[in-house]
Amino acid sequence: MTLDKRHPEAIRHIRNFLMHQGKFPSIRQLMKAMDYESPRSAALILDDLINEGVVKRRPHGNLQLIENSSESKSNARTIDVPLIGTVTCGVPIIAEENIEAMIPVSTSLAKPGKKHFLLKAKGDSMTEAGINDGDIVLVRQQSTANDGEKVVALIDDEATVKEFHRSGNTVILKPRSRNKSYKPIILSHDFQIQGIVVTTITQPLFA
Questions:
Q1: pLDDT exceeds cutoff 70 at 109
Q2: Mean predicted confidence (pLDDT) in 189-207
Q3: DSSP 1
């Protein structure tokens, strides 16, 4: 993959926008980030990245970051982890439709041999557990959990992060927040555990 010197800069801006906003930047947002005066300049760079296979245009028109750079592919200390955007109703959480980007993450965090994904936290229901609105959480994909673990659960096709507890045949998903409007969610079998929170990332993975 041969990239113009402007392209790694564009990739960094796209990656950081994805980590902050959970979605791909628009042409004008990329133009502003790169200090261009015309959206055409940003559009041309995006076209180059699509032609090189770094960015993929989906059938419905949205863009997806596939590779961050040739350097990240050669770095044995990282593994590509999907960053999940909006979870589509009825679609598995890490289905292609939900993946906004592939982000290289240190293998000291995302252990090889296990499947992981990144998810943007919403709301303030887990602030006392160190997860704030807009944070990115690294999740190890699995369908079971132990008491006290922070889980990503899929309830009525919506992903939520809560603290897991079991009482007999009942599961309790507890919020950890000073905001007392959040109440524990009591469930039986009408939900799915998608994974266990490994760590919280409060800043972009890359500068």
A1: yes
A2: 75
A3: -
Helix (H, G, I), strand (E, B) or coil at 147: coil
Category of 84 on φ-ψ map: left (φ > 0), alpha (ψ -120 to 50) or beta: beta
CA–CA separation, 145 vs 165, rounded Å?
A: 9
Identified catalytic residue from 120, 125, 150, 174 = 125
DSSP state of 129: G
Question: 188: exposed, middle or buried (C-beta count within 10 Å: 0-12, 13-18, 19+)?
Answer: exposed
Report whether 162 contacts 125 (CB < 8 A): yes
Q: What is the pLDDT of residues 37-58, one digit of tens each?
A: 999 999 999 999 998 888 988 8
* Gap between the Cα atoms of 46 and 142, Å rounded: 35
Question: Is 162 considered catalytic here?
Answer: yes
Q: What secondary structure letter does DSSP report for 98? A: G
Q: Which among 69, 120, 150, 162 is annotated as catalytic?
A: 162
Opening angle at CA 78, ends 4 and 27, nearest 5: 40
CB pairs under 8 A, 24+ apart, for 94-99? 94/141, 99/64
Across the chain, what does the average pLDDT equal? 84
Rounded to the nearest 5°, which phi and psi values hold at 163? -90, 130
Within 10 Å of residue 46's Cβ, how many Cβ atoms? 21
User: 51: which residues sit within 8 A by CB, 6+ positions away?
Assistant: none
Q: Could you count the other beta carbons within 10 Å of the beta carbon of residue 158? A: 10
